[in-house]
Amino acid sequence: MSTATLERIHSAHDEHPEHLEHLTEHSGQPTQGDHREIPMRSGTPLPFTIRVDCPAKTNLTLAVGEPHAEWGGRHALDTIYCAVGVYDTVTATAKAPGSGFSLDLEGAHLGDLASSTSDMRRNHAVLALFAMAEAAGRDPDVALTITKRIPVGAGLGGGSADAAATILAINRLWNLDWPIDRLRAIAATLGADMPFCLTGGLAHGTGFGEQIEDITAESAAARELESQGFCGDVLVGAYQSQLSTPEVYHAFDIMGAADGDRNHLQAAAISLHPRSGRAISAALAAGARHAFISGSGPSVVAFVPDDASAQRVIDAWVREDAADRIIRAKAPVMPIIGVTQ
Ligand SMILES: C[C@@](CO)(OP(=O)(O)O)[C@H](O)COP(=O)(O)OP(=O)(O)OC[C@H]1O[C@@H](n2ccc(N)nc2=O)[C@H](O)[C@@H]1O
Ligand SMILES: Nc1ncnc2c1ncn2[C@@H]1O[C@H](COP(=O)(O)OP(=O)(O)O)[C@@H](O)[C@H]1O
To answer: Average pLDDT by consecutive 10-residue portion of the chain (341 residues)?
Structure first.
């Protein structure tokens, strides 16, 4: 029997880590005209690195409609995205012209990315770098690093977060200053979740998930979600095992959604990974206001109203061996962009 490990992913907003000393943006909206003076030594620009801390996502509601041939068989969605403060960190540094790209991956939980058959050129961050290079008419001479903390293949959008972080980093590294709509159009060519991940926070997603309408913090919709308990402290129950998103959609096509599920993929994900269902029941019994499968799973997200309930949920998950990793975080949050010398 495994023992769950508990991690607290600190909110970079609260922490003021050293790398944010040179913070130029503190929101998901890349601002136009926000140029930085690049320090020079003897007339030569010093190499600098763009660092983006990009959060995981979950879906507070996920209504799944019909598949559409023009979207490559993807289903129509109506979803409320919420960014959860478990951050991957992507850095981008310019390399010598003509030298190509490089990718370094680190982290204790790399899932199938650690496998020797994992092709670096298929990594979502690298695909995003190539999409930006093509759109900008430039060579992808960039060194990327990814520090993974978001569980892989978990319904938490980790690959999308890394791709979105790369797009934000390249937009700054190359001084493109493209507006968010242009970045979202590029992101939508790569995946359904990526346009949301560029800005985080809360948003309404339609189309195949790529049409994004921000839900701003001051809006009535955000206040309503907060009053329902979809705000503040979150526990993520994560697993060693991964679920494939296409397989979960396929299971949904066969079995449909269970009555009352806000996430239409929940029953399909639990049918493939029953331990997640036990984590949901345990969390609700222990005082979580909401507990549900994140996206296509298998991760479970539980919103807890206070520290005491958080501890009860953690105790229940450990006692019942309902998760392999338990991560404490905040939601909703936004990506953070920093420039370091
Ligand atoms: C289920 C969701 C909920 O946000 O997220 P995850 O749980 O994967 O993170 C998304 O719909 C996943 O988004 P993402 O993983 O970006 O999907 P894509 O790369 O565009 O598509 C991967 C595959 O998922 C299925 N897919 C995806 C989106 C959609 N609207 N309908 C689908 O049927 C298709 O089989 C597609 O080939
Ligand atoms: N940078 C990346 N981070 C995570 N997964 C990636 C990445 N690049 C490619 N992948 C692949 O994408 C698949 C889905 O992973 P992920 O995005 O974490 O999950 P999900 O789609 O369930 O949210 C995995 O099989 C993984 O190997």
So the answer is: 70 41 33 42 69 98 98 98 98 96 95 88 97 98 98 98 98 97 98 98 98 97 97 97 98 98 98 98 98 98 98 98 98 95 75
Across-strand partners of 263? Answer: 62
Sheet of strand 300-304: strand arrangement: 5-8, 325-331, 232-238, 300-304, 290-293
Q: Which residues are annotated as a binding site for ATP?
A: 151-161
- Any atom of ligand 1 within 6 Å of the Cβ of 205: no
Q: Are 205 and 76 in contact (CB under 8 A)?
A: no
Q: Which of 59, 206, 245 to mutate to test the pocket of ligand 1 (most atoms within 8 A of CB)?
A: 245
Domain 229-330 grouped into CATH 3.30.70.890: yes
Q: Is 110 in the pocket of ligand 2 (CB under 6 A)?
A: no
Structure tokens at 198: 């560029």
- CB of 74 closer than 6 angstroms to any ligand 1 atom: yes
Side-chain half-sphere exposure of 86, counting CA atoms within 13 A: 32
- Among 3.40.1400.10, 3.30.230.10, 3.30.70.20, 3.40.309.10, what is the CATH number of 14-28+45-219+334-340? 3.30.230.10
Residue 33 CB partners (closer than 8 Å, separation 6+): 177
Per-residue pLDDT at 52 = 98
Q: Which atom of ligand 2 is nearest to the CA of 127?
A: 8
Query: If you ran DSSP here, which 8-state letter would residue 217 be given?
Result: T
